[in-house]
């Protein structure tokens, strides 16, 4: 049994004795409530219905209305409140797109604030702007261009912000009916290494535990993850974890203030005095995670702090792992990790003494050229003590978007079919029998590969649902040049984005989408903890001629393949769910979800429960890991990109309320600043062979030799060619020099 939180107040956990943290740097969550009300005054009853009945379209924690399945009380966060206006705003006047030169200098936030996209619109090369067209005209343009080229020159991309399982499933089916596997989603640039590494090591491709396992476990470890910023409601779970005696540890290259202390607005004690979360921070170099975790493993083995019986009975490759670790010297591990041998020992002792532990990670682990190995290093650590498949234990790649978990599972992925099955002739043939048409067998292009094809003039049609390649991929100039070479670009979204306004190579089509709350028949999402939740249609607010994405893709496929029109038709979202249950076994039960509050957790509360691993040999696999070599030349810094008061690439404020850093901040250690004669606010420029970024020094508790800058601003310094080998995720880190201006 997990330890239960104490109900009495615990002054030892308080962040400050000052009521409401007066004078402290932290988000004013109550202000966010009033701001959301003010912004949606013109549509307040609908806004309330969205919050009270809908499933959150923010991060992937998952709700039904304002309740969750982990703790009692209201579940609403500032991310969801910030996104609320996108569901309640009115349409913009299409006349504003008649001359796009008037919009070129607007920031993305300003473009979003113009309002919802109401009608299909088309812009031809050398035209100043867009003209309204009918849906029939728009579909005709797209279908004719697709028919005029070959499937290998088509590219499709689906964002994950608010995207639902029904859209993912119907879209990938339509694209494969058209004849290509060139469809990818936003998971490619966030947790694709997690999916790959978990699958090869454990036989599963999702978090193995539930949020409830955080509360009362012995040890809760966050590695390269800042949940206070990106999944803010989790701070409520952290508060109760502390009250249950859970030890919270963070491994990162910055001592994130929000992971150190926070004022949780929905808990009176914490709202008044705050809560101290992490008891220990281990600061490591950018890219130093494997070295730190390998050093931890060496200590665990040397001190016999491992579960030998579990390792012998339920795992393989442990001897190979030991053989790889033995020649790795402590001096090498210290140099690469940036941590000392004693620090690795201290963490190893915590792991060794824990009977139960949960490991949580995010983009700080995955968005590396060695992303898969970073994840495998965490899995190795968990397997030494059997911290998987039982209560209070687990491996959790925490998701940032409400729709991202279901994307690959629905098959909306260039490298897998529905259910996460690899693209093989056998799997394609099996799916072809079910669908009644031939499913392509060649691997599709990932999102970054699609942009490469566009740059090389090997892409004739790019259909993007949401997202903004200009703000999510490395080297924005390269991405812009690539997009401008595609003869037909189609952008389907609820609001404007900067990539829509780029000069057409020939034609650009804009299509208005509905939100999840506007879809007839309701929809579902899958959360980080694998909970599939029904989100009902919210009657009322509707925009122009906006349509659900799944309907558009079905109609497009029928235009292109009229001979199989009856095979690519759904009469509503309930019919899509029926087919999902048939095609994807772990989603059996989705067909029964039809009312607010309906949900189930596929795989149960714990995957691999009882240490049953769905691998070929039925065992978990250790992964022997060599150390990724990264030299740091004199005068250079390792730099990584971070989020700050934003939701993915959607920047919401100039200043991060948790850290106090503004968008052009260059987070630097006091030690490095002193060496260079720099102080807070000094103007500097970061440079490498790829570009330069001007900013201002922001002294913070960052590991010396490392810098942090905001994303997507920092994308100008990133190497577009650096990608992980298995999943192809871009490396969002770089090597730079720094000069004072």
Question: Would you write up a description of this structure?
Answer:
By secondary structure, the protein is of the alpha/beta class. 32% of the residues lie in helices and 16% in strands. It is built from 26 helices and 29 strands. Helix 5 crosses helix 24, helix 12 (289-302) packs across helix 16 and helix 21 (447-455) crosses helix 23 (476-483). The longest helix is centred in the N-terminal third of the chain and has 14 residues, at 165-178. It is globular and about 70 Å long. This is FdhF/YdeP family oxidoreductase. InterPro entries: Asp_de-COase-like_dom_sf, MoPterin_dinucl-bd_dom, Mopterin_OxRdtase, Mopterin_OxRdtse_a_bac, Prok_molybdopt-oxidoreductase. Keywords: Iron, Iron-sulfur, Metal-binding.
Attribute tags:
741 residues; six-stranded mixed sheet; seven-stranded mixed sheet; alpha/beta
